[in-house]
TrEMBL record:
It comes from Flavobacterium sinopsychrotolerans. NCBIfam families: yfiA. Pfam families: Ribosomal_S30AE. This is Putative sigma-54 modulation protein. The lineage of its organism: Bacteria, Pseudomonadati, Bacteroidota, Flavobacteriia, Flavobacteriales. It comes from the Bacteria. Gene3D superfamilies: Ribosome hibernation promotion factor-like.
Length: 100
């Protein structure tokens, strides 16, 4: 799957990009028709400790899934987003297979 990582208001390091790629690649075992993913990593200027936002958009034929999570670290936000997407993809796969 093609994963595009976009960093907003900061520069992203290779380690974080690799983590995002590796974590989102795992989604393909739940639904193999995933075309691509766009990941937007943002830092909000707040006094709050949970100021890291990960917005993940997954493209599948006929649909797009968007998940937005805000956490203390980007890794945690990406992990939570991937778990949510995993549930969505499993639901979609079950829905499609029940129509066949």
């Amino acid at each position: 799957m093609k994963v595009s990582v976009h960093a907003v208001n900061f520069t992203v390091d290779k380690k974080l990009v690799d983590f995002v790629q590796e974590r989102l690649d795992k989604l393909e075992k739940y639904y193999d028709k995933v075309v691509s993913a766009d990941v937007f990593l943002k830092v909000e200027k707040t006094s709050d400790k949970e100021n890291k936002i990960a917005e993940v958009k997954i493209n599948v034929p006929g649909d797009d899934f968007l998940v937005k999570k805000q956490c203390k670290t980007f890794e945690e936000a990406v992990e939570l987003s991937a778990e949510s997407l995993q549930r969505m993809l499993v639901k979609r796969k079950e829905k499609i297979s029940s129509h066949i």
